[in-house]
Amino acid sequence: AGEIADSVRYAFYFGAVVLFIAVSWTVVSSKEYSPAELEAFHQAEQAVNPALDKVNPSHMGEGFGRRSAAQYQFGALIFAIIGGLFTAAVYLYQLDKQLYILSIGILAFAPMQYYCAFALQKTSAASKNIAAHGKTTLPTGMLFNVVDDMFAMPEAMKQLALVQFFAWFALFAMWIYTTAAVTSYHYGSADVLSKQFNDGADWVGILFASYNGFAALAAICIPFLAKWLGVRLTHTVNMFLGGSGLISFYFISDPSLLWLPMIGVGFAWASILSVPYALLSGALPPQKMGVYMGIFNFFIVIPQLLAASILGLLLKTFFNGEPIYALVLGGVFMMLSGIAVLFVEQDNS
Fold this sequence. Notes:
The protein has helices at residues 6-29, 35-48, 69-92, 99-122, 124-132, 142-151, 155-186, 195-229, 231-248, 261-272, 275-281, 289-296, 298-318, 324-340. By secondary structure, the chain is mainly alpha-helical. α3 (69-92) runs antiparallel to α4 (99-122) and α9 packs antiparallel against α11.
């Protein structure tokens, strides 16, 4: 009691080695263009379309950016007020401490926007001089560019952000609560020292391994489904398979049958890791592909932070703290993700 089992310890060691090998192979085998090559590509594009390197007149005025300094200041004030009041309420009313993750996250976005307002004001004069010479490089900094690009996301990317939000909220619910749900609901024990609990936890480990195996098979099927049904409808089908799988945990009483819903979860997992990026790549301007792919990862992290903040509270408030309902909620969110993708604008070219 009180010690980490050897099987768990060696599993982590094995995982660390595999991760190191995978990352090393990616570094060695991936082609990376040098700054000189990228500049040559840009010059070639500019030769075809000289407007690529010109300042858009709509970006002029108080500064260079999609939003004005006043808009950033107002946004910063709103986030500061909401985040500050939320944080104070969690402290004063002794709410669930996990809500600090959400409240401080909201509060943290305020100084970022204040910085953007400051950067715009500082470069307002410089932007006119730079525009006169036909260039777009301004000393606003990386943070400004990321935040400004985030506010100017293509419409399809905004729609995909909602798709990702529902999907990764569901995944986080599954990863965090499956062990507690299966051990308590199917094995009838919440005592971590009991044999029933440990049998259930071991079975969950096998279930998680199985859905990754099914995902590998699903990855082979998804291109054929996309050719037949279209990319968006394929994702909808896969997310409904995954959502149905998670919800079915509530209805399956025999734990030995729980591998069946993991087939659907595997299809959803494979789809989440591929289809949204396929839809996104066709909607992004080539010169902003790297930035927007990075920003898109925000919509993987944010829903997980939100889930960490509120899932426990939701279970305590509405479901008497029973973890099986976290899987049901996860299933519902997966299906919502499948519905949301149908409204994503798609470049059919």
